[in-house]
Amino acid sequence: MEAQEQTIKQLRRAVERTLGRKMQTNKDFDCLADSIYEKTHAKISTTTLKRIWGYLSEGVTPRRYTLDQLARFIDFADFDAFSASLENGNSPKPSPANADAASSPLPAGEGQGVGHSPSLRGRGGVGLALFLFLFLLLFLFLRPSADTSDNDRILKKGQVFATYDDFLPLFGIDATESQHYQYVPDEEHIVVWSPEYHNPYYHNDGNPDSLMPTITEYYHPEDWPTDSASMAQLAAMHKQGFLTAIKENQVRLCFMKNLVDSNFVFLGAYRVSVTLSDTTKVVWARATDECNLDNISFLNNYRN
Fold this sequence. Notes:
Layout: H1 2-19, H2 26-40, H3 46-52, H4 64-73, H5 79-87, H6 122-142, E1 154-156, E2 160-161, E3 181-183, E4 190-193, E5 214-217, H7 228-248, E6 251-257, E7 264-272, E8 282-288, E9 290-292
Parallel strand pairs: 4-6
Antiparallel strand pairs: 1-9, 2-7, 3-4, 5-8, 6-7, 7-8
């Protein structure tokens, strides 16, 4: 544990050198969060960064996802690669991504025919270069176009996650309290929502066979009293919930628990259905099946 703390200390120093400033003020942490997003497209909240730098003494161990993103910010593949550079006694400088073994010169005469220069010359060399050029063009022309559906940075409806820790860090969220409802950092209208299917209090009803095109949410515990005063109180709570949902006008990224089994299933991004909701319930309708983790702000376009 002590060795890891020393490695994290070195990582902090390397990040500060790359950023060109010490982490001393709120503005510094805002600048670092923005710089990380610009370079790696990873969103890390300033609160998480302050914990790593010790400005918030909450005793929380940094998540591996966060350490990996900091390492990538200084051009390492991940935190392990950064740690390895320290263990090898090197200063924390990234190794070239693609080292070219051919960059070192060959010994005199090695790899060369007698009486020939090392460069391509004559008709044979020109012919070989032309053949390689035409082959490359043919390869680029005939290969299938890139399919964004294979992009592992795009969440798709039906993806399964075992725990909160498997999907919350994708959004730069380090939840220590409410794990089922967290705002995406720097997005005041986008929420990561992890409701439980057929929750005994909020219900969260819908059609699981089509992966919940709508989710009907209403608060009504099974043991709620049935006297008139209690029912009036419940009606007032429903009305307030409806008005709040309309006012906040959120987009909710839904990871539903217990829909198929005990795992979480990503269902897409939802918005309030103004036509289906009323003062007795809030109905969330799916707006899109996907979420591009590199462009979460785009989801604001689905707000009512």
